[in-house]
Amino acid sequence: MANGISQTKALQIQDGIYAVGAAQKDRAEFHGYSVSRGVTYNAYLLRGNNGKYTLIDTVLNECASQLMERISSVTEPSNIEAVIINHTEPDHSSALPEVLKACNPVIYATAAASKFLCSMYGVCNAQTVKSGDEITIGGRIYKFLATPMVHWPDNMVTYLPSEQILFSNDAFGQHYAASEAIDTLCDLKAALEEATHYFANIVMPYRAPTLKALQAAASLPIKTIAPSHGVIWTKHIPDIINLYTELCGNAQTAATLVFDSMWGGTAQRAKEAADELNKSYSDIRTFDLRKDPLSNVMASLATSKHVCIGSPTYNGFPTPHISTLIAEIEALKPPVIEYSLFGTFGWGGGASKKLAEKLDSLGLKKVFDLTRA
User: 12, 51, 121, 227: least buried by Cβ within 10 Å?
Assistant: First the structure.
């Protein structure tokens, strides 16, 4: 089995099953958050016993040429008889019009996805499937499980019972364009780090439906998890399942300390705040928003009980960096349940008061405030 990422050739992951997606190794941003190891858009091509093929998902439209080249390394694209769309977000579906120029397949999608395909691309002839449905294409049995709000209402996953492969779409994915696309050959620590970052910045607001989907997946015998981003899971399936179980839960114990500082005063206060946190927490992670990407902070908050925020006062408000952090906390809903504040102000305060009002409104409990004039 070949394992490296090629710009033009498919990767065979089992007999007659190929990864044919695309990679952007130099991409540094996705969905508004920073990525440091590139991005892949995974799609999968499966050969039937009739010599025809089924394509599961596509890629971002700007990478359509990579998709078509990799498909062509296996078969003529005209041999695609079916396309399964697990999710219609553009990074998984916007190359569909290019695929349809080369073939005339039956398209399978959830009812919500069918509506989105029609409105987004004018593709209005998808065959609707629902959770639990099984269909046979080219002699292979495909089973569909709806996973709504993981992380769009149209999501589903596709399972092959005979091969015990779960095509999990965004679940268990990572923004990680590893040189080796299989978990046994890549840097496992990096893959799990990127899975945490992906969860925290994309999936975290939907922990409850994700947990339901995780429980459904755990009931299946699975030898391979083939997500729509990042490496394919084989030997290390227990590691990614355990990670998701932790991330979907609320029993977090860490503290995240994050600050912004204009002239260094708030940065000096960070040591005092850390000393206070040390009374209750052994795991304290510190971030300086002038240096550290906000996406890294959100990844830390995904496993934190406490957030400690430091800000100087900026025209009566927290600084723009801190205001953006608060907006992300409100939108992504990390499992933190308590907060503390520290910071400085010169001729006029206000940052601490406004931060407390906002965090109180989000249901967090204040533990201490070390703001000084």
Answer: 51
